[in-house]
Automatic annotation (TrEMBL):
InterPro entries: DUF4350
Pfam families: DUF4350
Protein name (database record): DUF4350 domain-containing protein
Residue span(s) of domain DUF4350: 45-244
Biased composition (Low complexity): 411-421
Organism of provenance: Variovorax guangxiensis
Keywords: Membrane, Transmembrane, Transmembrane helix
Amino acid sequence: MNAWVARILTVLVLALAGFWLVTATEWADTEVSTPASGEARTNRFYGAQAMLRELGMKVVKRDSLDAMPPAQARLVLGSSHWDMFPERGQRLRQWVEQGGHLVMPGYLVGGDQLEDWLPLVREKPPASEEKNEKETPEPKKRRKSGIPRIPDPSARDADCHTVNEPATVPASFAAGRSYRLCTWWSPSRYRPADRQPPALWTATGSRGTEAIRVGVGRGTVTVMPWGLWHNDSLLRGDNALFAAAAVQARGGAEIWFVAEEAREPFMLWLWQKGWVAMVVGLLVLLAALWRAAVRFGPLAPSAGTHRRSMAEQVRGTAGFLHAHGSGALHVAQLRALDESARRQLRGYAIRDAAARAAAIAQATGLEPAMLLRAMDGARTRHAGAMAIDLEVLETARRRLDANGPFTPRTSSSSPSSSSSS
């Protein structure tokens, strides 16, 4: 019994909740825009280009105006930096005069490279509209360039209005002359310049001329609202039909879209054009850095030059005398003096024995006769004379190696006093 009571209460609670949900809420359909995917994410003219392809036109997308379209083609020019090079205005003029059809937004008409040959002047806005513009001024940059104002997207169809082709121009389509455009309105409106032929095609609305086409040579220039070209506006109202009328869509015709000025990254372009020079320059730079870099030391520290102890000196000298005799010691001492004299005295090698002794004596301050006697290798010496001669030769060698020659001395001195001083 308790189970049945619980089930009945559950059903009643669910019924009451459903009744409250139905009476307290309201269901309505809401449009949710689907994010763009594929090429449409990066190309804001993707919808217009696809439409023109369906109409049988050949669509070409370009990232710059470095090259001009073929004769009789259409050019949809939307890049604000198309005139970054001075010669482009003249090339565009020649292309239009030879039969090209140019389509552009109103904010590009006042460019320096167009004002000399484009037969359009800006219309003065009505007094009421001019007053509204003064009351709600736009940023200086926007007003100067003529870039159209973008309405609040929350107001659906608030930017839709009607334009008509006047009876003075041929109708673009047989179905009628009226179009419902849904895009932001542009404050820049133009008319043919004074003493110029009348416009070939116009579309006027409540605020005046919104699109105009004039002849330039054998070609035409069309100025129109630019917002209807974008993907999110093309399918609203009669925007697609009006875009086809503006470009004079014809099957088989070629149409170019130049919406921006895109350039290849500078370093990539530089590598493709001059990789040989870059590689050579890089090698030269590496060689210069290597030459200027700090050198590494040896793998192991070099042994220091230490003076030998007196005992080692005595043992070494005694061993040499025991093996070779005193004559060999004199020869070795004389060879050491000769090597020092060759380094310090100019022309020493070409002199005879007496001249060599005189040169050494002048440089060291020793007596020439004493040096000549000590340098004589053929003379027989006893132990005392050998010691004196070796001391004279060693004193002369040390004085020669002591930073160059000595100043000649006037007074004589014995070898023992010289070595001890």
